Amino acid sequence: MSVIRVAGALSDAICVLSEAEERALRELSRTLGVDWARLQSELVFLRASAVDLAAVTALGDGPLCDDLRHGIRDRWQRLAGRSGVDFEGEIDERTAPYGQVVSDPQKTSGSLRDAVGFVFSQCCTDGDPNADLVHLGGAMFAALYDEVYQLLEAIDLAPTDTRA
Questions:
Q1: Which of 37, 93, 112, 154 has the most CB atoms less than 10 A away?
Q2: Rounded to the nearest 5°, which phi and psi values hold at 84?
Q3: pLDDT, tens digit (0-9, with 9 covering 90-100), for 46-101
Q4: Burial profile 115-149: b = 16 or more Cβ within 10 angstroms, e = fewer
Q5: What's the pLDDT score for residue 164?
Q6: Rounded Cα gap, residues 94 and 55, in angstroms
């Protein structure tokens, strides 16, 4: 399967909520008193971080992983260009806290799931941790990571042909 097709599918997994997921998250945002748009936006960055970690751990740090990451970023840039968003600065800035937790063993002395959930909660609430958001963020990160990791392990990715 081509890296470009997989990158497109993973971009959709990061950015697109199912109707059921959107309904549940809207209800949760009302129940917890968290701004819906902020919750939805933060979920994109949480998901992007989960996909990125799954790509690195499943494919290793090399050309195939780089191709996949580049394909995802290209698709995001096209989408952001249509909406006028400063894509590069925003995605790097907003995913940085998740990357720091993943790469810092001191911050993950407990479970990675809880550490990522804690960051998610803080990002959704201006730094005030909320146990329900910690659980939600950690569970969503872990579930998407597992699914993407298994997918990337199961398929035979064809590298991008750079000869043009």
A1: 112
A2: 80, 20
A3: 999 999 999 999 999 899 999 999 998 888 777 666 655 556 667 778 888 888 88
A4: bbbbbbbbbbbeeeebeebbebbbebbbebbeebb
A5: 42
A6: 19
* 107 C-beta neighbours (distance < 10 Å), count: 16
**Among the listed residues 164, 161, 157, the one whose alpha carbon sits nearest the alpha carbon of residue 10:** 157
In the structure encoding, which two tokens stand for residue 55, read together? 């790509």
Q: Are 130 and 32 spatial neighbours (Cβ–Cβ below 8 Å)?
A: yes
Tell me the mean pLDDT in the region 106-115: 75
d(CA 35, CA 27): 11
Per-residue H/E/C for the chain: CEHHHHHHHHHHHHHCCCHHHHHHHHHHHHHHCCCHHHHHHHHHHHHHHHHHHHHHHHHCCCHHHHHHHHHHHHHHHHHHHHHCCCHHHHHHHHHHHHHHHHHCCCCCCCCHHHHHHHHHHHHHCCCCCCHHHHHHHHHHHHHHHHHHHHHHHHCCCECCCCCC
